[in-house]
Amino acid sequence: MHVHAHPNQVRAWYKQTLETGAADSIFRDDWFGRARFGSAQGVTHMDSTEFSEDKVRAIISRHVACEGALLPILHEVQATFGCVPPESVAVIAQGLNLSKAEVQGVVSFYHDFRPVPAGRLHVRICRAEACQAMGGRALGERVLRHLGISWGETTADGTITVSPVYCIGLCSVAPAAQFNDIQVGRLDVESVISELERLT
Ligand code: FES
Fold this sequence. Notes:
alpha/beta; 5 strands; Glutaredoxin; binds FE2/S2 (inorganic) cluster; 2 domains; five-stranded mixed β-sheet; 9 helices; 52% helix
């Protein structure tokens, strides 16, 4: 969903998702895995954050016969556990007859793969050029300073994670960010900060 937002729309979305609990279902749906592979191909919703080797092996078995199985497996692992648990790397490597370094290299290359689950609200702020030039740099710095975290980290209460992204296709309405699965352009720093203040 793209939202070229007036700040009031950002506010309305926060209200809808965080005060009604809808953010939980958005997070469980895992927009990234769903968008890329679709539920018809076996991507499950996040039903547990607890690592299970059997679940990882079941995921591998669904993809192992396909060419380029590693990425679909990693996406489904993240959709299942909310992250790619470090313990899963060895299981995947064994299942695909790869080295652990090869699997870990792919996990590290893609910013969206996380070693621990993100917070209930995952804020991805665009750090690519167009957004940086239009206030994205200031937005990122202010949000991180306000929350007392660094890029990729989650607040101590587990509520909010802030990650960098590098272009989400909203360059013409920069600065842009994504709040769980909602993409928002023309962001206003003060409005975002004031909403975060209400949440923390
Ligand atoms: S540069 Fe930020 S959305 Fe493209």
